[in-house]
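Researcher: Last one for today. Full complex below.
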Amino acid sequence: MATAWLAPDSLEEALDLRAQRGGEATVLAGGTFLGILMNQGFLRPDTLLSLGHVAGLDRIEVVDGELRLGAMASHREVERSRAVQSGWPVLARAFSLVASPRVRNQATVGGVMADADYASDPPAVLAALGARVVLRSARGERTVSVGELIQGYYETCIAEDELLVQVRVPPAPARAVYRKFRSRSSEDRPCVAVAAVRGLAGLRVVVGAVADRPQELPEVCALADESLPDFELAAEIGRRYAEGIEPMSDSRGSAGYRRKVIATEVRRAVEGLA
Amino acid sequence: MTLVGYSQDAGVEGMWHAAFVRSPVAHGLVRSIDVSGLPADCVALLPEDTAGLGRYGCQLKDQTVLADPVRFVGDIVAAVAAPTRAAARAAAQLVSADIEELPAVFDPLAAVAEGAPLLHPETGDSAEDKVSIGVRPLAGTNVCHRFRLLQGDVESGFAEADVVVEETFRTASAQHAPMEPHATLASWTPDGRLELHTGTQTPFNLRDDLAGIFGIEPERIRVIAPPMGGSFGAKTFTRLEAVVACLARKAKRPVKAVLERGEEFVTLNRHPAVVRVRVGASSDGVLVAKQLDCWADTGAYADCGPGVATKMGYAGVGPYRIPHVRVDSLAVYTNLPPNGAFRGYGATQSVWASERAMDLLAERLDMSALELRRRNLLRDGDRFATGEVMRDVHFEECLQAAADAVDYESDPSGRGLCVLLKGMQTPSRAAISVERTPVGYIVRSASCEMGQGIRDSLRLQGAALLGCEPGQIEVPDPDTDSSPFDTRTTSSRSTHMMGRALAEAVRDLHGNGGERGYGEIANDGGLDPDTGQGIASTHWHQGAAAAQVSVDDDTGRVTVERLHAAVYAGRVVDRAGAELQNEGSMIMGLGTALFESIEQADGQISNANLSDYSVPALGDLPRQMTHELIEREGAEVHGLGETALPPVPAAIGNALFSLGVHLTDLPMTAEDVLEAMPEVVG
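Model: Here's the assembly. Have a good evening.
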């Protein structure tokens, strides 16, 4: 009747447990999402596999110019990390906009990515920055993009024996913007989230919180050539994003409303790159 | 600093924990309850255990300890006690109820329509069901109370009017969201007395309800009310206490219940309401007639819905001289969780409608909304629509102070005003005792502490009267065995009523050797529910608010640039406490204005957590939020615990209206604002 609690100390042990138990053991990171689901009775796991004691999983480091965020690093740690603030300020800002300090002290990088909650802030900005997610199992390791990781509402490509152990972010382009539009409280999740970056590979705009997974329209981004988009072009990109996305309705806004806000917020984000 | 023990923390040796089995359907008959899966070390409370018990309810006795029929998703059909909270919750999951579904209704207008499913077919059949004088259920309908107020002849009034506006407004349901959830510990003594430690604003009403349920003398029940970690109306009348007391009796040991956050949303919420306003004036802006129709959705049980509908009705008249008035206000059953007392008690809903209508009228008259209000405000010695003569009237000062705070007269664009009157529980009674101790005094009353600061208020008032330091005065928790009677801690009445009773008690003490004293104050009155005539309130809460807003033209998101509330305080007892009351009220008003809304589909609440249900956070405060407490030399103490809440939504709504955005429904979401934005020309 009671929930069994597995709390390995090392990653090897955690991966062994994952290999043995697979989907029967629900992986627990910060618990901000699982906690709500369990409190409301939507989820009653028999076994929880807590990563809270796994040494080293909360590390934030820069290796060869690449940012490596351990799965158990909290949102607050990312927000306040000197390395993130100086090299990836847009990421520090996006994490700083999540809920409240109480939640950010608890919620983790790995948790938010593995939950694949459509209304979270980090996926869109990490996608725009070209982040890759490291999935490890006793069999080995693979890395996937955010687009490959998140497959639908609360669905990921993580196999039953794998753990999301790290998120790797390439050097940030000079220009990057994250806009979080909230339709209700300042501590709410986004109604529309827009991450826009302009690097060597051109413009990337990713819209979050409007559909089952982060939305990116490369053919629209390609409208922006090497020059920085002007107001007209930014508005055009906003319009095309609004047309190209099928938004969903929830308590933060109807599909029709979201479409209007996407046009506005994408335009503003692209303008913000100038 | 005082160490505070909350009900949530109460505990005794050998106590078990309760969990509730709740209905998954909105309306239905309980066919059977299957407890065959329960483990040995727990006790289940089942319908056969409560069959012989009395019905209860603070204004209509329409509730039973366990529900059958069930009338909302979350209605309690059985309960389980077990040695730990986790075991109780796990056990409750193993109980299944077989319920035959009945048709259900979720909207107050649909619930009064012909052919609507009836929630309480017996309503109005038995006069004995009415425990509060003046409740008017309509037999064979879902209307559990109808309040009418009639003054003059409203139709001839409208015929005289040069301009008439009419509009229908709606307000959403809201959660009190106190930090501490409902918590109750119940035990039966060996000699058959029931003892409760429970978070409640109404210990004596609760004791009466429980006495009726168990068929015992009220004195056989002891209610101890520790301080609450917030309530805002949520912890009024009988909530968990009856079920937990029954569980304790069956388990033959103390039993404690503490609700989960999600359960709060099916325990008590605020009445959603529909309010139709028709108001007419002469071309020079003198009000001649007003008609108000209210439908207050009280959910599955009446609770204090009749009282809410009554206050909604007369507060919606507004603080104005109007010769012809007709109010028809209904409390209506629907298959939603019960709605009850909520800071702003009925006024929030009708002030929104009524004060938005004033700005519609001002626009039609091509007159300043401030001037229209000023021209019609009640002044000292005027009669209100209920017939009572108004004294110590300060509506104009409040309104002017609010208007000045946003420079309304220099530029009304983007700015809005609201002025209100709100009544206090009438009739009511408050008693208190004072006794000398070696270090000072002990003051016993049933005024309940819920963070509003009544203990500090009594200490400060007591110190001034007794000539000692506030720290020398001990104020124990309300205890129905030792605290003198008080009607209840609601409607911003305690500092006003209990403060005066305390002055009486100190006079008595001084006249009787200085050892002990007793004081009692009663305010008499009440309204005739069929005519609305009488004494609505012996003491009026008077206030106003002004807002200045800006709007993001592309997304409809509203920024409140300035918000000011002016509240008549008479004489301030505890300045820091009074200021916090104003600020707290304003912040709750912001949530109501801009985003708080309990959402449901087929009766199932879909945002029953504080992630999906948004309450205001620090980042939601206006750029500039100010308030003032208006005092007058020699004035008596006025209640002010909730006056600054109801005017906030209409002040913001009227500020938006000045920008061409006319909204009728609360909350005013960014999406609604964008939808209502005028087309920008050029």
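The interface with chain A takes residues 39, 86-87, 90, 93, 260-262, 554-555, 557, 591, 594-595, 597, 599, 606-609, 611-612, 614-620, 669-671, 674-675 of chain B (CB under 8 Å). The mean pLDDT of chain B is 96.
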